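Revision sheet: structure tokens.
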Amino acid sequence: MGGCCSCFDSIRGGKHSNSPDGHDKSMEMTRNSAAGVPLPTHGMSRAMSAPTIQIQGFKVSGSGLALARIPIEQDSAYWEWHVHLPGLPRPPPDEDDDLRDVQMNGDGDPYAIKFGVATRKDGNFYKLLDNVEEEGDEASPRDDGTALMRPIPNLRHNDVIGVAVQQSDLPMIQFLLNGEPLPECTINRFRGTVYPAVYIPAGAGGEGDRVEDEGISLIAEFDEDNFKEMSPHARFGPLLCARGII
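Predicted:
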């Protein structure tokens, strides 16, 4: 009977619980949820993204900076961005390779989308950024929130951008295009709490005059079951939900 009581106490979170403070964590999470405290979930953050960004679930379009809800708190994490641009299909492999070899760093393309991470942002950040642009000044990557991001040009429909972040030893951000590493885009050394982020320049993805409403959209993918490519190493697991910002 004593064993049964111990099991019952453990389920209830009593003194025989496995938790050192006598509380069952799963029960506590359930109570928090029932009390109206939302549990963190993956998605894009409306509060931290630019007003010019459109968010529909995990789909991002429009222009400006967009951040995910969940910060990167684990040692190694991997996620993907799936490119949606039906009017610009991916060319055959041989032609595609030739195209990618042309200035892969994207510095010469003002419409190249930037991928990576960003620190927490709020409405005041975007107001200050608007003031800089209204005065005719050009914001630097440090000022516009893209210091920890890299441009990847010449994207096509169904392209997959993989981002792998490691924080121990030598903090590093690695990028992959359709499973192929982009070593020239690697970012070494960063500090602080960061969030998965993407920056879409106005008019990105359009042809000719780059009309904005012909632009690109991106799907943020954090679910390992929906990844289309492999991470660069087995230690890079999917981004875990620890805490988040809506």
